[in-house]
Amino acid sequence: MPFYKFIPHEIKFFDLFDRQADKMVEAVICFKEFAEKGIFDDSCIERMRLLEHQSDSIAHDIIDSLNRTFITPFDREDIHSLTNKLDDVVDLIYAISKRMRLYKLKGKNADVQEFSRLIMQSVQSLSIAIKGLRNHRQPQTIQQACIEINKIENISDQLRDVVIQRLFKSKKDPIAIIKWKEIYELLETVLDVCEDVSNIVVSILVKQG
Amino acid sequence: MPFYKFIPHEIKFFDLFDRQADKMVEAVICFKEFAEKGIFDDSCIERMRLLEHQSDSIAHDIIDSLNRTFITPFDREDIHSLTNKLDDVVDLIYAISKRMRLYKLKGKNADVQEFSRLIMQSVQSLSIAIKGLRNHRQPQTIQQACIEINKIENISDQLRDVVIQRLFKSKKDPIAIIKWKEIYELLETVLDVCEDVSNIVVSILVKQG
Amino acid sequence: MPFYKFIPHEIKFFDLFDRQADKMVEAVICFKEFAEKGIFDDSCIERMRLLEHQSDSIAHDIIDSLNRTFITPFDREDIHSLTNKLDDVVDLIYAISKRMRLYKLKGKNADVQEFSRLIMQSVQSLSIAIKGLRNHRQPQTIQQACIEINKIENISDQLRDVVIQRLFKSKKDPIAIIKWKEIYELLETVLDVCEDVSNIVVSILVKQG
What we know:
Three copies of one chain form a homotrimer.
Chain A: H1 7-37, H2 42-68, H3 76-102, H4 110-132, H5 140-170, H6 174-208
């Protein structure tokens, strides 16, 4: 079989990953919008649920293509990990939105807004890294994006510490502390998971290197 | 060496995984029984400890066989992951039982009982998926079981949200909230880990596909 | 290219892992010292931050060497996992120190001290296991160290249960319970992560076996 026969499969995987990355960015745009309005109501949750569902569908398409494809652009296991971890980002944002509603945490919160901006920056870099896999012979773009993701994770780590310290100082109600502590830690975890995805991207680069 | 020489090793691995799956189901039967009685006392913990120990022994037998076997029915790493994650299910059920006793959470609790029923359904499907690995040329059985596990995980996710929402509404004592919130989240995590195991089973299928 | 040309690379990896293991032990010595004094202040955090930074640098050197080396002493993915999980140990100890300061948990605490002794024992065994990878044809040393790490993890599990039970009995302030419960669980998690690292070491042994 001539080599070009394989190319369509490769392109398909890259296209699917691009779509999954776009869906992740879309979910974060949505989350950031709600954070800025300070509203996590039923219609917000419904929009997030839809995005989560769409991200899930793309992940399933990727796994399906994997089952039906003999040659893949990189390791089968890496395709598996990458799509699952990407899906985790969207899952987590959806879970946080649901928790905000469940805890009836209403009103604009500057810290939630700040986290949502960091998450936005991180997923934009992540999207660049993932789309860079198509041209892995120019690894600088990916490497720069991954350095950026790592930096943002460090900033979010410090933000969480500052915010939780303030929480214990300002709030005397233990139930409010339980709720907000969880939300802030979940928000920081989104940045951790973005970094996990970027580590998978780097390890794919390493193997192709 | 003729090919049939290898077969005994393959059979041994499948037998060991069957035994580990059975032990997991046994642990859940035990947990469900205690949940229905509403009693997590010393004798309950002792029975769970024994089951956890037996599951551990089987996991060790699998790793030992791995060390002494050249040809394995599937990837060495997958055998490692599968046995470790299966052991995690039993570990977690044992940990929840210990936490129930530690927190002195006595009496029948309809939500704990509902979770125990979902866990029962999930591990039964998981057991079917694992036993299906023997006949991976008929992947439909495994795929159906894994779809079922995924469905149950979604249901348990919703159950946890409903139950935690009710908890924050009904209880005013923050210490009671801390305890029950943890128990409900651990119970839901069992379903997550079952789904993790089923994902490993699927990824084994993918590689053999 | 003659075979001996590859040897330097192998030695380099082992040297880097030895250095990372030493850095981990150093971080734990530091943590144990602060636990014994009962002081987690700015100068403590600064020392821990430095150690965490140094451990991070070694991890980056390992990944860099991986990118520039064709032949490695064991699987590229295992090198990746091992260095990342080792880094997690130091990260976690640093995070616990920061949390102790953030929560203003001052004064000597016998339970924190007991955990710090268990962590010390575990990382010492872990260091032996990692340094044993150089001579993987004598796997007994590694296996014994890993059995020891597993034993310590079991002990720490029981310690955490006892300590948390006592916490709920002795403290009536929910906010104090929230803080200490988190610290004790993080301390126990260090032992879990040490066991995770030892499992990676064992799985490297298995593949080379």
